[in-house]
Design brief:
The chain is an alpha/beta fold. The chain is built from 19 helices and ten strands. The protein is elongated, with a radius of gyration of 29 Å. The two termini are about 40 Å apart.
């Protein structure tokens, strides 16, 4: 085998049986000889079938040949962005050169691994399909971008000022439901005054003073979810506390009423939900940051034109834990994409939502701007790669460092303009992976553990 053929095809070929080893040391010499002479000596569909059969692999239909080598169809990703594409390949009869051959082969590998989870099994499933059957199958995976943009406006969601959105959290609700909260503030004020503190601020009465002898690091209330407006304001007397509490309580009631109504609107929109945002928010900073993050992602120039329906967790509340769980499960099931916002601390609920989405085969985007955590979620975290329970396809997450990348990925998904790279994992033979081009994230993969693969697909292929 000449070095050019060998080096060009190394990223696709391995020692597995079938099409995965079509260009390898185990190939029939006549296969290699024909492929070495392909430049200037076009390869026909009949000849390609002969090469496949010489390799003891299934032959292909006329429609399959036309779809993968003679056309650049509207696909669920952009086939023109693959590394070997050239507009001259679009013709009526032949594979023109070796790069042209690799372009079609690469598309087959990506499609079969992406859709079926196994390259050879997938190839056997579609290699005899007609051109119309292939077009119908892959058109069913595309988003109708024009239809998305033409849906029209939703009912108007109520607005809550970002600095008060933390007041709709479950912990804040629990604090306000406790009738002793105001007395707790006054008690802290009295303690500070008795200790001779000259300048007693709202923050002082809000947070109290931890007992150094206590084993617990917390006060009677979760200080991170108590009202923190006016923290620098000086408390002159107990009337200031009454005014502070009453004002915040009024804002709390108003904000919660809006958030509950917004949840009703989300439930009424669930069949048309595009993106679900999974997060864990504990304090005002979390809510404010989350509000800003959603704004940056969905109000960017490109996405604003799509007018996507997305769940904003900072403006939605629920009356009880049980309903909250049902609502979140319903939204994960209904949405098209899930975004996982990595925080200072993660939660079981957020992890479960990401796991559900991956297990349903949905695109899951992890947002993490911390380098250490970014590496962890990209390379280590067990929930960043799972399987679609319906068909066994191994699914990975897209790991993003900034909101601009998230916006771009979402835009590409809904415009059927995703860009993928297929390769074999470093220092492996047959461990294939599809990577998302912008973030270099492993998005689909096929193990090279033959026993695992056999056991796995024997189970998943049971009717």
């Amino acid at each position: 085998m000449c070095e050019t053929i060998k080096s060009k095809s190394r990223y696709l070929m391995c020692s597995n049986d079938g099409i995965e080893s079509l260009i390898s040391e185990k190939s029939n010499p006549d296969i290699i000889k024909r492929l070495e002479s392909i430049d200037g000596n076009e390869l026909t569909k009949v000849q390609l079938n002969q090469l496949l059969l010489l390799h003891q692999e299934k032959g292909i239909s006329d429609g399959f040949f036309r779809y993968y080598w003679l056309n650049a169809p509207n696909h669920f990703y952009n086939v023109k962005k693959l590394q070997h594409f050239n507009k001259d390949y679009i013709n009526d009869r032949y594979i023109l050169n070796f790069d042209h051959f690799l372009w079609g082969l690469e598309r087959i590998f990506i499609d079969t691994l992406y859709v079926f989870g196994n390259i050879r099994n997938g190839f056997h499933t579609i290699c005899k399909k007609s051109l119309n059957e292939l077009e119908d199958m892959f058109n069913g995976m595309r988003y109708n971008t024009e239809e998305i943009m033409a849906r029209g406006n939703t009912l108007h969601f109520g607005s809550i000022e970002p600095q008060y959105r933390y007041l709709i959290s479950e912990s804040a609700c629990k604090n306000f439901e406790d009738s002793n909260l105001k007395e707790y503030f006054k008690q802290n004020y009295k303690v500070a005054k008795d200790e001779g503190e000259k300048k007693i601020t709202v923050q002082r009465i809000r947070c109290g003073k931890k007992n150094p002898n206590s084993k617990s690091s917390k006060n009677n209330y979760e200080e991170t979810t108590l009202p923190i407006a006016w923290d620098d304001k000086v408390v002159e007397d107990e009337k200031t506390i009454d005014d502070y509490y009453n004002e915040i309580y009024k804002i709390f009631i108003h904000s919660r009423k809006i958030a509950l109504k917004n949840t009703d609107y989300y439930l009424a929109l669930v069949d048309d939900l595009d993106v679900y945002v999974a997060t864990s928010m504990r304090d005002q900073k979390d809510f404010t940051n989350m509000s800003t993050t959603c704004e940056k992602i969905f109000k960017s120039g490109k996405l604003e034109k799509l007018d996507l329906r997305y769940f904003d967790p900072t403006i939605s509340a629920c009356s009880c834990h049980e309903d909250k769980g049902l609502i979140e499960c319903l939204m994960v099931k209904s949405c098209k994409i899930l975004i996982y916002i990595v925080g200072d601390k993660e939660s079981w609920g957020k992890d479960a939502e990401a796991a559900m989405a991956l297990s349903l085969g949905k695109p899951v985007i992890f947002y993490c701007d911390n380098d250490e955590k970014h590496a962890f979620f990209k390379n280590v975290h067990p929930l960043s790669r799972l399987i679609n329970f319906k068909n066994g396809v191994a699914c990975g997450s897209i790991i993003c460092r900034d909101t601009k990348d998230i916006s771009e990925i979402i835009y590409r998904i809904f415009n059927n303009d995703m860009q993928y790279i297929i390769e074999q994992k470093k220092d492996t033979d047959g461990f294939y992976q599809i990577k998302e081009a912008l973030t270099d994230s492993m998005y689909r993969f096929q193990t090279n553990n033959k026993l695992l693969s056999s056991s796995f697909w024997n189970y998943y292929n049971i009717p």
